[in-house]
What we know:
Layout: E1 10-15, E2 19-21, E3 26-33, E4 39-46, E5 49-54, E6 62-64, E7 81-84, E8 93-101, E9 108-118, E10 126-128, E11 133-134, E12 139-149, E13 154-159, E14 162-163, E15 169-175, E16 182-191, E17 201-210, E18 214-224, H1 257-278
Parallel strand pairs: 2-9, 11-18
Antiparallel strand pairs: 1-3, 3-7, 4-5, 4-8, 5-6, 8-9, 10-12, 12-16, 13-14, 13-17, 15-16, 17-18
Amino acid sequence: MLSTGSMCLRNVYTVIPEAAERGKAVVLRCMYDLENEDLYQVKWYRGDREFYRYAPRDVPPVKVFPISGIEVDRDASDAQQLTLKEVTRRAHGRYTCEVSADAPSFLTAQVHGSMYVVDLPKSDPELIGLKRRYKPGMKLKVECISYDSMPPANLSFFINSEPALSQHVWHRVGGGENGSLWTAYSTIQFVVQKHHFIRGKIKVRCSAYIYSIYFRSHEQVADEERVIRTTIAPLPETREAMVFPIHRVSDNSGMSIGQRAAKGFLQLMFLVLAYYIVR
């Protein structure tokens, strides 16, 4: 917020990261344009407590006022840059930069920004439960887990690079008791359809992010199960056999040899005729 009538103090703004990783150094910047004025001093506050001052006319120009959880790197701080060493969780909060011009105006402007201190996961998110193959009509159920962070990671599912439908996804978190780290869980479940496959594959990706400081993804691919169609050979056509009774005449019937021969020839012809009728 710029004070009224400050025509010589323009374009005042801060560059403060949205989040910083615990245990790492972080740089905060206070930018301004004094035009033709000289700088009188720059002050930094965390909440309502001043902890850093830069006054070019003082010797030394840098003064640090102790606040628990904040350690200033004097050698890497000046009129526009403030460097904090190995930030702790106590370093999160609202920061204010106050810039004052020198005589004759002594105009002052204040600008604000907030920073969170986070614990980032040590590994990428995990995907559990994806099968090697699916076919339309099968149920797909996969769980994504991001371990040990503060705050818990935000998890998002993607199917073939498209955001998953919200009605298919459930989220929960675990841990966080007594200042411990959180574990984030997310589960996706739906019935696989034909359109889910692209060139015979379905891709499932889980992305985890924490503010703008952390973004990791894990993707797995499953294949479409091919249905092998088999044809059953038709059974051979069968015909019902016709049975004709044959009356055999005893040799003692009193028939002559010629008669018996003629009788046998007729029986043979009858059998042949019956065979062709059956076919």
